[in-house]
TrEMBL record:
It holds the Pfam family DUF455. InterPro entries: DUF455, Ferritin-like_SF. It comes from the Eukaryota. Residues 52-75 are annotated as: Disordered. This is DUF455 domain-containing protein. Residues 60-71 have a biased composition (Polar residues).
Length: 383
């Protein structure tokens, strides 16, 4: 029997041995009530939405695949996987990008349609990857002029790489933290499986468009930074929420409009429309991260803002501007979590209020002392 310590009052047992070192850790910040925030207004509608089969980008936008284009269900998915965690592990173990994308959608579909349990499963140490693109350090990635690709293909290839990684990041969250479903609840895993399904659709659009303009995913090298951020948070579900949805995916909200403008400037309006749609749908993924980060902090009686900032330091997570405030606000990320100017403004306002309150206290004390002094002189017997 393996006992996994969650908090002094939260334990559960009977976990497989390989989960011994995957602990549900949280920051040691001082206890505080959760700050109020406005969750994304569309979160519940997104959760209740039917399966999205619009995996092909037609002349008028996304649409379902035609009968001749519908892929056969891989035998591996039909033959194995009796739980969401097992299906997620199968996706993570698939190297071919397009097959991974299809498996991701089929896994989410099977789980929804067949009512499969969350289950328990051990994720692979790293997701399977194709031979190409070659993974190199960021310094070794060629710039657009030396890549051999036109700018629209270069930028689209980078986005495809992000979306493929996002499939694995979401499924790793489902599988890696499946031992804690009694604490996190079914909705946590439903949300991140849904995110994985969205990301698989985004990759399908990017891959299709690359092929339309004469290129393929894997034509140029790519980096592995996104998976490194995932690895750093493999033992801490709060850190995973901070690192992936609240930092990496939120960065996508910032970059989306700039990427759309570059595509329009290049004259590729079809790709710009695809990118704009992807950026719009990413708001849901950030909102999911905010929701569950707040849930975890509330569960552990931690202050979300200070906990987020402590995690940034502990896990060396970097926040980069400029920020897309409108998209971040819509997703529900409080500005004081990431914007130092907003934080400083709040601190100044807080200090001003404290100063005003102290001044009022001093005034009242002075008034009381003065009144007591007058009473004392009135009641003093004549000499």
């Amino acid at each position: 029997m393996v006992m996994v310590l969650l908090t002094p009052k939260l334990r559960f047992s009977h976990l497989p041995t390989h989960f011994h070192f995957t602990k549900l850790r949280f920051c040691s910040s001082s206890s505080s009530s959760s700050s109020q925030f406005s969750p994304w207004s569309g979160l519940q509608s997104w959760r209740e939405s039917p399966l999205n089969e619009d995996r092909f980008w037609g002349t008028s936008g996304p649409q379902p695949l035609s009968n001749t284009e519908v892929p056969n269900t891989p035998a591996a998915l039909e033959a194995s996987g009796s739980s969401l965690a097992e299906l997620g592990s199968l996706v993570l173990s698939t190297s071919d990008p397009l097959t991974k994308s299809k498996l991701s959608h089929l896994a989410f579909s099977r789980w929804r349609n067949e009512g499969l349990p969350i289950g328990l499963c051990q994720p692979p140490s790293r997701p399977a990857r194709p031979t190409n693109p070659q993974l190199v350090s960021p310094k070794e990635i060629p710039d657009p002029k030396n890549s051999g690709l036109p700018l629209n293909a270069y930028l689209l290839h980078n986005l495809a790489h992000v979306e493929l990684n996002a499939i694995d990041l979401a499924w790793d969250t489902v599988v890696r933290f499946s031992p804690f479903y009694h604490i996190l609840g079914d909705k946590f895993f439903a949300d991140f499986a849904h995110v994985a399904d969205d990301e698989s659709r985004h990759f399908a659009w990017c891959s299709q468009r690359l092929a339309e303009i004469g290129f393929n995913y894997g034509d140029i090298p790519a980096h592995n930074l996104l998976w490194r951020e995932c690895e750093k948070s493999s033992d801490n579900v709060a850190a995973r929420m901070a690192a992936i949805p609240l930092v990496q995916e939120a960065r996508g909200l910032d970059a989306g409009p700039r990427l759309v403008k570059k595509m329009v400037g290049f004259g590729d309006h079809r790709t710009s429309t695809i990118v704009a749609r992807i950026a719009e749908e990413e708001i849901a993924h950030v909102a999911v991260g905010v929701y569950w980060f707040m849930f975890i902090c509330h569960k552990m009686n931690r202050a979300p803002c200070s906990t987020f900032k402590e995690l940034l330091q502990e896990y060396n997570l970097e926040l980069k501007g400029p920020f897309n405030y409108s998209a971040r606000d819509e997703a529900g990320i409080p500005r004081e979590w990431y914007d130092s100017l907003s934080t400083n403004k709040q601190e100044r306002e807080g200090n001003w209020k404290s100063s005003q309150q102290l001044s009022e206290v001093y005034d009242r004390l002075a008034c009381i002392i003065s009144m007591e002094s007058e009473n004392s002189s009135l009641n003093r017997p004549p000499e």
